[in-house]
Design brief:
By secondary structure, this protein is α+β, with helices and mostly antiparallel strands. The chain is built from 11 helices and 7 strands. Strand 1 and strand 2 form a beta hairpin.
């Protein structure tokens, strides 16, 4: 137990040291980039942008940090001959790896349960802040229990669109209401339609009823039925989809309810479901990277080419990471099932790591 605590503390401090070094380097790089993008902003506002972006970039490099921390730990133990003493005491490689595996698993669990909500909130705030400084809109769409809301603007005013549901590709809205406002906020007209289809530069409304609101008197008395109606729009399908926000902007704790809202509104939530399963499987993938890296680096420096072993471990870790990302793309596109896309790469990486470790240790 004392030996496990010793290895766990050394691995944890090594991880924190590597993570701190990378955090400082990334913050400096991001600071230079943001100063170039916003040369007219005060330094404190640029520093706020960098501080909001730092959690997301640090979260993305977590696999790399664990790989380098494992390399640093076992190279240090090998050079000090501590691994030789452990083996001489009758400890196998798997038992020596127990503490680093447990620490890596705890790091992964803390990352998805505690660090993930911080990353999501900071990333969303960073995106809104950058858009406000660039003069863009933070969002044109919102999802609620009553349906979905869209907003489009032009030189003639703003139009708020409500729909009970929509098609999965967001090109058709059902049971829609269009509220047009002048630039000063005065209501101009209200249009209710059975359906609205988004085409190139316009909405095509079917079975519409129009109420003029800029006239005196009762709007119902001057309302008229229109079989088909065209409303100009600068919205596109890609812009509406982007307004949902990236999955990284939503906390893992809030993701199930968000997916339910999307599905109730008629949208495809596959992209968000894949991301949620990928996050849940990430602790397994981190453990696989630790075992894989240890298999190449926990040998004595005199009987192995240290440089080649470290390079092989790092390159193999990157390869598994890219395979995992490729599986995520296939899952988002519907080429493979969601659970298969999210859980197969981590589990396969774990089995591969154990296989390489057993081969290295026992031949």
């Amino acid at each position: 137990m004392i030996l496990h605590s010793y290895f766990a503390s050394k691995f944890l401090w090594t991880f924190l040291g590597v993570f701190g070094v990378f955090a400082i380097l990334l913050s400096l790089i991001e600071l230079v980039d943001e100063l170039q993008d916003f040369p007219n902003l005060p330094f404190l506002q640029v520093a706020e942008i960098v501080a909001l972006k730092l959690p997301s970039v640090s979260y993305e490099i977590l696999p790399l940090v664990l790989i380098l921390a494992t390399v640093a730990l076992f190279l240090r133990l090998a050079r000090s001959s501590e691994l030789v003493v452990v083996r001489a005491a009758g400890r196998s490689a798997l038992r020596a790896l127990t503490a680093p595996i447990v620490v890596a698993l705890l790091i992964g669990l803390i990352a998805i349960t505690m660090f993930n909500p911080i990353v999501a909130a900071a990333s969303k705030r960073h995106n809104d802040l950058v858009n406000s400084y660039k003069g863009g809109d933070s969002s044109v769409l919102a999802i609620s229990s009553e349906g979905l809301w869209l907003r489009q603007g032009s030189a003639t005013g703003q139009t708020v669109i409500h729909a009970a549901r929509a098609s999965s590709d967001v090109t058709t809205l059902y049971n829609t209401t269009f509220m047009a406002f002048s630039p000063d906020g005065t209501p101009l007209r209200r249009i209710a339609a059975q359906s609205a289809r988004l085409t190139d530069g316009e909405w095509l409304l079917a079975e519409a009823k129009l109420w003029p609101l800029d006239q005196a008197g009762n709007p119902e008395s001057s309302a008229r039925q229109i079989e088909s109606l065209s409303i100009p729009s600068a919205l596109t399908q890609d812009r509406i989809l982007d307004s949902f926000g990236k999955p990284e902007y939503i906390s893992l704790w809030d993701m199930p309810s968000f997916i339910n809202q999307l599905e109730e509104a008629g949208f495809s939530a596959r992209r968000y479901a894949v991301w949620m399963q990928m996050e849940l499987a990430s602790p397994v993938f981190l453990v696989a990277l630790v075992i894989l890296t240890a298999a190449f680096t926990m040998r004595h420096t005199r009987i192995s080419n240290t440089g080649v072993s470290v390079l092989t471990a790092v390159m193999l870790g990157f390869t598994l990471h890219y395979i995992r990302n490729f599986a995520q793309i296939l899952g988002e596109n519907g080429q493979i099932p969601i659970l298969l896309a999210a859980w197969t790469p981590p589990l396969a990486s774990l089995l591969l790591a154990f296989g390489i470790l057993l081969h290295m240790e026992d031949g």
